[in-house]
Amino acid sequence: MKLKIVVDINSQKKFTIDNLSATNVLIVEASYPELYGENLQKSFKYTGRYIVDIDDINWESTYENTQRARAGGGNPKYKEIKQDITNYGFKLKHPPIALRRLKDGTLVPLNGRTRKQILKELGFKNVIVDIYEKQESYSWNQFEDQSSKFGLIANSSHDPAGDIMLEDVYRECMIAIDKGWIEKDINSIMDRVNEVCGNGKFTKAKRDELTFRIFNHYRDNEEMEVLSWKSQSSIQIWLNTRKYIDNDKVIYYPVSHSTPSKGITGAAKMAFDNPGKEIRVIVHTSVLSAFDIERSYIDRVKDFVIEWENILQKISSGYFNGKVRTNSPIKLYGALPAVSTLHSLDKIVDFKSIAKQDQRLAKEAEERTLYGEEDEYEEEFA
Known about the structure:
- By secondary structure, this protein is α/β, with parallel strands linked by helices.
- 46% of the residues lie in helices and 13% in strands.
- It contains 13 helices and nine strands.
- The protein has helices at 17-26, 33-36, 78-88, 113-121, 140-157, 166-178, 186-197, 204-223, 232-241, 260-273, 293-320, 351-370, 373-380; strands spanning 6-7, 44-53, 90-91, 97-101, 107-109, 126-134, 250-256, 278-284, 330-335.
- Helix 6 (166-178) crosses helix 8.
């Protein structure tokens, strides 16, 4: 009998024993050491591959696995994956959905929610799965810890519906710290980030940025408060609650530190559409993720102002023979606050105070270098 490597989802609504046997031939376990071999989580025992009814799996368990809900809500490639399965069938060459068995025997997913949802929408009643149980020599807490990592590791390497996002890694690491699986020090966080990202997923710069973001979140709670500006809605709420409200004379126009050119054209359009009103441009620093969060804030604002002025100078030189309009309705007004140790978090920060803080930090860095503290810092985080 010819080996069937793809399931036609239009003519078949249940996986069969033949399909299960095909996966055992097509999937070479030696190619997936993280799932079946030496790199499998130490508390895991792989018990085998089975066909299980979809309704016999607790897809919405209270088990707080990172893959329970993706950051941002759902798989961003859902439509693309569904279209592929609909047009070309369900491929049996990929490792199947992974489940783990809880203490009471309940089966809960470690990954594969996207595939399950698609199959269920297409009328399937069962799924092919790999089932893992806890090794006797490990605790249930250790099993839960390693289960949390497993979903991301599988998605980063082998899950055809995987493609993890940085926010997934961020959420998993936050869970790991909150549950006491790792310490809040930077080396422990970095190790966790690297492990769940797997090989080749995200650059070192992205991983370092994420590590510092997580580290700063917990340091902030203990030493400082930090505001992250992730959306226009959060910015607008902050402005309104602090009485920075547009009126018949003034419009507040927030611009990201990373897009001064876009900010200039946007502010110009805003001024054109609202003649007679002052357009107050306010720079925001997005999500601060460097280790030195105070320096990161100041540098982002400072670099934005420098680039803003450079772009305006080029426009003036290229279009208006270097002439500068002195009565422009567009004003570079200030920056949204973000770091409580630098300023109040309830007022727009003026650029003069940022310049003073810049001088203070530069002086402190000079003193650290003078007394050899900078070298110790570089060695610790090299």
